[in-house]
Amino acid sequence: MLKFNRNRLIFGLFLIILVAIGYLAMEALQVPTWPAFMVLIFFLMAKGDKKTALPILVGGTVGILFLVVAKFFVMGVGPSIGLGTAKLIFILLVVYVIVAFAEIIPIFVNIYSFMFFLIAALATNVPNPNPKMAPFLWIGVLLIGGGLFVLGIIGIYKILTAIVLKKVAKAK
To answer: Do residues 149 and 18 make contact, with C-beta atoms less than 8 angstroms apart?
Structure first.
């Protein structure tokens, strides 16, 4: 028989409160939510491991900065070799940099860099009259909103740990 895990239910409740607050705050500020929610997702995938917070935040920032550099590269090289070829070459360079340097400077270039680069590139190609489609705004949302999500999740884990420890102490 399937049994509910009380701690997961409590975690889920706290998490949806955190998500609702974060979403409503970003909507009120009229900023895109996706960079902060990507941080939230990646941090949850890492099961709240504090060691992953910095690589997610910094790697994500680098990934969005790759997009900024890509624009200059494609605009500079594209007219002579074709825009499609210039985009392909830049993507190949990004993949190579991530693979070649991920072990040397893992905080800066990692799988999070590539994911944020990919999603930011997709976000720039989505027809949208919203003027908030700016890479530096995305970086701000990633660092502030995503950072607050990380802190919120760490706080939730601390609350749950305190609840469990209190139950264990009562059981003795």
So the answer is: yes
